[in-house]
Specification:
Order of helices and strands: HEHEHEHEEEHEHHEHEHEEHHEHH
Number of helices: 13
CATH class of the largest domain: Alpha Beta
Distance between the termini: 65 Å
CATH superfamily of the largest domain: Periplasmic binding protein-like II
Number of domains: 2
Radius of gyration: 23 Å
CATH topology of the largest domain: D-Maltodextrin-Binding Protein, domain 2
CATH architecture of the largest domain: 3-Layer(aba) Sandwich
Shape: globular
Length: 350
C-alpha cells in the first residue's frame, strides 16, 4: 500500500516538474471561443479582421436564445465551454453577476461608451450594443381602415384596439420580458397588473417568442400571413424591413412607437476559468472596436454603444432612437424578475 502511494506521489511530482521545465512543451492557444445566443452575427470580413490582427481563430458557440445561453453558461461556470460570453442583458445581468460567472476586465475603449450603458462598476461585463424594445405597428393596416394607430401604452386597452396586439411571453422571450418591465416601470407595483388585466380583457395574444410573434402573427412583417397589426419588437425593426426589402422606400412599412420603449443593453464578459484568458480580453477589446461596432447594426439590427461610430443610412432614416426609453436598475430587476413573471402568468395566462 505504501509502495502504491509512494509511486503515485512520484508520478505526480515528475509530471509537475515536466510541466514547469522551460515551458517548451506548452503550446500557446490558437483559438478563442465566444459563447453566445443564436441571434449573434458577425460579417465574414470583420471576423477575418479579428483573426488576422490576433492570430487566433474565432470559434462561435451558439446556445439557444439569450436565456438558454446564459443558463448553459451558468451550469458550466468555473469550467466554461468558451472564453467569452456575449448576450447577457440588463434584464438578466444581476443573475450572472450573483453567480460569479465573469472575471473583471476594463477595456481601454470603454471611454468611448456613454456612461448610461456601463452597468457594472466592477467591469465584470462590458456593454456592446443596445436595442430598445418597442411596440411596432403595421402602417398599411391602419391606413387602409382609417383607424388612427395607438400612440401610448394606455391606448392599447381602448376598445378601438381590441384583438390587435400580440406580445411575447416574458417567461420564454427577452423582448417579452422587456415589455413586461416597461409596464412595471410605467405603472409601478400598484398598477402594472391592472394594466395587464386590461390588455387581457382587450384580447391580447401571447406568443412564445419573437419569431412567432413577429413573423407569424404580426401583419406588417414581410411575407407574413399574420392578422395582428401591433406587436412587441424593436426600435430597429422598421429599418430591417426596409433593408431586407432590397428596394428604395420613402417610408418603412412599419413604425415603432416611442412611448413604452424599454432599454435593452447586451454585454460581454471574460468567463471565469477561461482556457485562453489573454485571447478573451483581446476579443472583448475587439467587440468595442470601431470595426465591430460599425458591423453591429446590419449584422444584428441593434445599435452600437460607441458614440463615435456612425450609423448606416438605413438606420439613420428608418430606425427609432427613443429620447427617453423606460428603464429599471438591474438590481431591482434581479430582485423582482421571477416574482413579476409569476404574477404576470397568473394575471394573463390563467
Amino acid at each position: 500500500m505504501r509502495y502504491v502511494v509512494a509511486l503515485a506521489a512520484a508520478t505526480v511530482l515528475l509530471a509537475g516538474l515536466a510541466a514547469g521545465c522551460g515551458g517548451s512543451g506548452t503550446k500557446a492557444p490558437t483559438e478563442v471561443v465566444l459563447v453566445t445566443h443564436d441571434s449573434f452575427a458577425i460579417s465574414k470580413q470583420v471576423k477575418a479582421a479579428f483573426e488576422r490582427e490576433t492570430g487566433l481563430r474565432l470559434r462561435i458557440l451558439q446556445a439557444g436564445d439569450a436565456g438558454e445561453a446564459l443558463n448553459r453558461a451558468l451550469l458550466t461556470k468555473g469550467h466554461p465551454e468558451g472564453d467569452v460570453f456575449f448576450g447577457v442583458d440588463n434584464n438578466l445581468l444581476s443573475r450572472a453577476l450573483a453567480e460569479d460567472l465573469f472575471d473583471p476586465y476594463e477595456p481601454a475603449a470603454l471611454k468611448s461608451v456613454a456612461p448610461r450603458y456601463v452597468l457594472d462598476p466592477q467591469h465584470r461585463v462590458t456593454p456592446v450594443d443596445h436595442g430598445e424594445v418597442c411596440l411596432n405597428i403595421d402602417r398599411r393596416w391602419f391606413a387602409s381602415r382609417g383607424v388612427p394607430p395607438p400612440r401610448t401604452l394606455g391606448d392599447l386597452v381602448s376598445p378601438r384596439y381590441r384583438g390587435l396586439l400580440v406580445v411575447e411571453n416574458p417567461a420564454t422571450s427577452t423582448p417579452g420580458l422587456a415589455f413586461l418591465l416597461a409596464t412595471v416601470a410605467r405603472y409601478g407595483e400598484g398598477g402594472w397588473q391592472d394594466y395587464w388585466r386590461g390588455l387581457r380583457a382587450n384580447g391580447v395574444l401571447v406568443a412564445d417568442g419573437w419569431e412567432e410573434a413577429y413573423t407569424a402573427r404580426f401583419s406588417g412583417a414581410a411575407g407574413s400571413k399574420g392578422k395582428r397589426p401591433i406587436v412587441v419588437s424593436y426600435a430597429s425593426s422598421p429599418a430591417a424591413e426596409v433593408y431586407f426589402a432590397g428596394k428604395q422606400m420613402a417610408q418603412a412599412p412599419t413604425a415603432s412607437l416611442e412611448d413604452g420603449c424599454f432599454r435593452q443593453v447586451e454585454l460581454a464578459g471574460v468567463l471565469r476559468g477561461a482556457r485562453n484568458p489573454d485571447g478573451a480580453r483581446r476579443l472583448v477589446d475587439f467587440l468595442l472596436s470601431p470595426a465591430f461596432q460599425a458591423d453591429v447594426p446590419l449584422s444584428m439590427f441593434v445599435f452600437p454603444v460607441r458614440e463615435d461610430v456612425p450609423l448606416p443610412p438605413v438606420f439613420r432614416r428608418f430606425a427609432l432612437v427613443p429620447r427617453s426609453p423606460l428603464d429599471l436598475p438591474p438590481g431591482e430587476i434581479g430582485a423582482n424578475r421571477d416574482r413579476w413573471i409569476r404574477e404576470w402568468t397568473g394575471v394573463v395566462l390563467r
